[in-house]
Design brief:
381 residues, 10-stranded mixed beta sheet, alpha/beta, two-stranded parallel ribbon
Length: 381
Amino acid sequence: MTNILTIRDVEYSHDDILSFRVTSDQFDDVIWFGIPTLTKPHDDLIALAAGCIFGNFYDRVDFLHPVSPSVRVALEKITGATWNAPIGAPMPIVSRSETILNFSGGFDSLAALACLGDETTLVSMDFGSRFAREVDFFERFDPLVVRTNAREFAKAWTFMGVGSILLSSTLAAGYISFGSIFEASPWNFISRSGGHSAHPIFRASGMEVVNPVVGLSEFGSAFIAAKRFPGSISGSLESLADPHTEKFMRKTLIVKALQELFDLDVPLPKVLPTLAKPVGYGSNLAVDYLAPGFVHFSPVAYENWVDVPSPVLDLIDGIDPEFYWFDNTESFTPVRPQMASNIYSNKLELGMMPFRYRHWAELQKVTGLMKVFHKFPGPVV
C-alpha cells in the first residue's frame, strides 16, 4: 500500500504566519510557522521545509503548490518519494555568505557559538508550552525565534533545521550550523577519510553544513561553553533538563568536573539532581562513550549516574581519559579556509587543543569497549 502525504493550502497571513494543510491516512491537520523576518519564504523553501519535517517516511508526496524542477528532483532523491507538484520558478541566485546557528541554548549550542564567533546569526525554535523554560533562556541571546507546531509531525531529525531553511534566503545564509557533538551520532565513530558530508536537504536549500563541535565530547563542549559563557551554564542546564533526568545528572557532574579540574568559576544549578536510579551501562551510546571519563573525573559521584559492571570498570581503569578534553580534528565538516581558520583560532583562544598522538589509542580503547554493546554502521575509529 502506497503511503501518501498531501500538502495543500499554503498561506502566508498578514500576522506573519506561514501555514499549510497536511493530510495522510493518519491525520488531516495544519502545520504553521511564525516567521520573525516578516518575509514570505520562497515556494522552494516551503517544499524543502516539508521535506525536512517528514524525511523519507512517505512513498509519495502530492505538494499542491509550485516547486521548481530542480528542487522537486532533489526532494525525490533525498526522501526517496515521488513528488508531484506544479512547476514553479526557481529561487533567485544571490550571494550567500552568512552563517546560521540552530541555537537551543544548551552546552553544545553555546560551544558552537563560541567557536563560530559573535557575527553568527542565531535561529531558535519555539515548539510551544512544554519548552517554555528553554525559550526563556535562549531569548537572552536575542535569536530569531521561529514559532511552530512542526515537532508534532516530525519524522526525521532534520526538522530541527526547518526554521533556518525557511529563513535562509532572507538571511543570505550560505552555511547552517548545529551544536552536534561527537557522541551524538554513531556515524561520527566511523573511520573515514575526509570530513562529514552535509545533509542534502540543507544543500538543496542553498546552505552547506558547518559543525565546529563535531570533534568534541560533551566534556569538551562544556569546557568551551564555560570558558566563553560562564554565567550562562547553570541557566542553560536548568532550561533544558528536569532534575530527575539522566541528562541533568550528567551535565551537573560535568560542571563539577570543570570546577575541580580546571578551577573554573562556573556556578552549579540551584536545584540538585534527583535521578531515581542510575542508567545501565550498555544501554545508551552517549552514556557509554562518556562513562570512562566520569569514572576517572567523578570517581564517587558517577555511581549515581551510571551503573558500570565490574569487568567493564576493570577495563576502564586502564584508559587515560585526557582525550575527552581535546578536539578530535579527524571529525570535522569541510568549510572554506577562512572559516576553518577562524573556528580553529577561537578554539585555541578558549584553551581547546587538538588531539595529540597518544589520544588516538585511548579513544580506540573506549570504542573497542563500546562495540561489545553497540552496533555501528561501519568500521569504527
